UniProtKB/TrEMBL annotation:
It is found in: Cytoplasm. It comes from the Bacteria. The keyword Protein transport does not apply. One of its GO terms (cellular component) is cytosol. HAMAP family: FBPase_class1 (MF_01855). This is Fructose-1,6-bisphosphatase class 1. Residues 213-336 form the Fructose-1-6-bisphosphatase class 1 C-terminal domain. It comes from Hymenobacter ginkgonis. Its EC number is 3.1.3.11. Transmembrane segments: none annotated. The lineage of its organism: Bacteria, Pseudomonadati, Bacteroidota, Cytophagia, Cytophagales. The gene is fbp.
Amino acid sequence: MSAPATIPPSHDDIATPVGTTLERYIMRKQAEFPFATGELSQLLRDIALASKIMVREVSRAGLNGIAAVVGPEGEQTAPRHRLGEEAHIRFVRALTNGRECCAVLSEARADIIDTGNHDGKYVVALNPLNGSVSLDFNVSTGTIFSIYRRVSRYGGPARAEDFTQGGRAQVAAGYILYGSSTMLVYTTGHGVAGFTYEPSLGEFFLSHPRLTMPTRGEVFSCNEGNWFDFPEFARTFLTTCKERRMSARYVGSLAADYHRNLFTGGIYLYPPTGQWPSGKLRLLYECYPIAFVSEQAGGVAVTGADEVLDVPPTADLHQRVPLFVGSAELVRELQVVAAE
């Protein structure tokens, strides 16, 4: 019996490139920094490594009770879930082992975490698992991070001043979205790039070389259950959105809601409420990094009258502020309404 015929691969299949890995992209872009000697590149690799571990853990969340609450909400921190605690440990461990980060500010802890790398030139502020409250329901979650070059003395522990330099002092920021696919989106101040994780190869590949946000959009994202607590300007603006027949889309995870609007255009709103009169989202490791990405993608992020990146940080490392972020024309329109 003759062997079965085989169909040779098409020329297109052979010619299809494997793509640019995150590792290769980081090395290429390192030249954009006049002071770069590899430390920032290593930090980004460390964050990517921890996120790969979290891809596995998030996919198993419904199987082993890892989404269960393990700690109550504190004055400065959100309720602690088992997977959120796992994310905190994974990212702190990766940043510690990479040796370039001297301290971490995490949503999961009230105080600065000393990694022991006192010669490290950078500090990292992060929300290890944004949206973890919805893990039991297969809702997309994410990690949000911000990187600063330290200003305290090398050779000693980091200080609060390293984290309170202001939003414009960020040298890199971004987020990882754990959803139907996993994406890492980040900026170093030279545009925004997006990478999609290929689990069979264990690599992030460049899928969106230069992400830009549409100047307008047809989506508004907010928790309308807080409608009667919203300030008047927010209700007025949202009423206009509804009159235009814009679509309401709200997941409840900042990373997920922002990610959708980054691609489609739109606006995300978390105004002050009765429960959170100063706003709910944390400035240093949620609002600053999302605002940095937004400005680099052509979007706008404000707290109302002020640009988020210009909001001065206080001594409270878990400072909360309102957040309105998205397509430039929509956010500027909201500001006009707020000023009336």
